[in-house]
């Protein structure tokens, strides 16, 4: 993931950087996935509360 301004040239630059180094992009993706799984996943009673709020009985 790369934070860019909402400008064409910034997007193109970031895309080119990712394409130029696939191994680094894969490593960044794996690190981001680990953070999401560690810090942002609903589990236990929190997951149950969300399920009850969003899904029919």
Structure description:
- The model has no long low-confidence stretch (mean pLDDT 96).
- With 57 residues, the chain is an all-alpha fold.
- The chain has three helices and no strands.
- 0% of the residues are buried.
- The protein is elongated.
- It has helices spanning 8-20, 22-39, 44-54.
- The protein has one domain (8-54).
Task: Tag the structure with descriptive keywords.
74% helix; 57 residues; mainly alpha
Write the layout of secondary structure elements.
Layout: H1 8-20, H2 22-39, H3 44-54
Largest sheet: none
Category by helix and strand content: mainly alpha
Number of strands: 0
Helix percent reads over 70%
Q: H/E element string? A: HHH
- Give average pLDDT, whole number: 96
Number of domains: 1
Radius of gyration: 17 Å
Query: What percentage of amino acids are in beta strands?
Result: under 5%
* Spans where pLDDT lies below 50 across 5 or more residues: none
Number of separate helices: 3
Which of globular, elongated, flat, extended, rod-shaped describes the shape?
elongated
First-to-last CA distance: 37 Å
